[in-house]
TrEMBL record:
Protein name, as recorded: Putative tricarboxylic transport membrane protein
Species of the source: Brevibacterium marinum
One Pfam family it belongs to: TctC
Highest taxon of the lineage: Bacteria
InterPro entries for the chain: BUG, Bug_dom1, TAT_signal
Length: 348
């Protein structure tokens, strides 16, 4: 990779009725969306920082998704922790949604040397780059840090006859297209989690009947109406509905059980080692210097070490997975390979 990832010596790595088959896959036209989004983004005023200035005084955090989404929440939690701790008094969040984060990435790749601006990134962008044949990628940025991750959980309606992964897989293998699944957009972490579960179970991932939804709330409504059988969603999106008993959790795609929800078993302990996680982190603009990269990393590290960020991790059911430098670059390569393999299995 040709990006300028900086090292960080101070970091620590811490059987149901059949449904009509309906597959909703699609490729977003990157070019048209990019032109529209970049035109919109140009109306924002983003101050250019002096190469010798203090970058913590003014920072712009780009969330490459709409308001209320996962990247938006991650960016605003970061903004709040920065403000409270006076790490970036004038931190602003700008939303540039579209195409799995690649519209924002496309705009960001043109901000050569803009050291006062960072772009939120993560698993969804890895998928977006591959799914949309994005003309830009991680090589067109400066890698900063992987910060946090969260995990998907497989849920069903509270009155579903399925209680364990073995219950689900046993029937799924008998009738691969008999179940209807739901979650986020095509190619999302939710979709990929189901694909990985299919591969581990000997079910053809390309035969999955999947209805994409905007979020956990919409997915739950399809379960309750009987439109779908199972949903794969971020645990933090649906934990309150699990707790309320509206839906049941069958398994969480995490290395260990989620604190506060110890009665929900992991997929791994049920014999299905689903390893895909929804990680989130930050990218710097292309062409920034080592000193500027170091300043940005220092701000991010102090934000990550703050009580406010610890509270954000707890509230959002996120896990701290701080990673920088060459290790972060290597992780990006491995994650890209894993996601591209799953997308190929899905026929996307």
């Amino acid at each position: 990779m040709t990006n300028q990832s900086a090292s960080d010596p101070g970091a620590d790595s811490r059987s149901g009725p059949p449904h009509p088959t309906r597959r909703m896959f699609g490729r977003i036209a990157y070019g048209a969306l990019a032109v529209a989004a970049i035109g919109t983004a140009s109306t924002y005023s983003v101050k250019a920082a002096s190469a010798k200035g203090d970058l913590s005084s003014n920072l712009t955090l780009i969330a490459p998704a709409g308001a209320g989404g996962g990247w938006d929440g991650f960016s605003r939690e970061t903004q709040q922790a920065m403000r409270v701790n006076k790490l970036a008094n004038n931190a602003q969040v700008v939303n540039i949604p579209g195409a799995g984060g690649t519209i924002g990435l496309g705009k960001f790749s043109t901000m050569h040397g803009r050291a006062d601006t960072m772009l939120a990134t993560g698993t969804a962008m890895v998928g977006g780059i591959a799914l949309n044949d994005s003309p830009v990628g991680f090589d067109d940025t400066t890698l900063l840090a992987r910060v946090a991750e969260d995990y998907d959980v497989l849920i069903a309606a509270a009155d579903s006859p399925y209680n364990t992964l073995d219950d689900v897989i046993g029937q799924w293998k008998k009738d691969p297209e008999g179940f209807v699944w739901t979650g986020g957009s095509a190619g999302s972490v939710d979709h990929l989690t189901i694909a990985q579960l299919a591969l581990l179970s000997g079910v053809s991932a390309s035969g999955i009947t999947y209805i994409p939804k905007a979020g956990g709330g919409e997915a739950i409504q399809t379960l309750l109406s009987g439109t779908t059988d199972f949903a794969s969603c971020g645990f933090n999106e649906v934990s309150d509905q699990i707790e309320a008993g509206r839906v049941k959790a069958i398994g969480v795609a995490a290395p260990q059980r989620i604190a506060g929800y110890e009665d929900v078993p992991t997929m791994t302990e049920q014999g299905y080692e689903v390893t895909l996680t929804n990680w989130r982190g930050w990218l710097g603009a292309p062409g920034i210097g080592e000193d500027e990269t170091s300043q940005l990393l220092d701000v991010l590290r102090q934000t990550r070490d703050s009580p406010e960020w610890a509270n954000a991790l707890e509230r959002n059911k996120w896990t701290d997975v701080w990673l920088t430098g060459d290790e972060f670059a290597e992780f990006i390569k491995e994650d890209t390979s894993r996601v591209e393999t799953l997308l190929k299995e899905l026929g996307l």
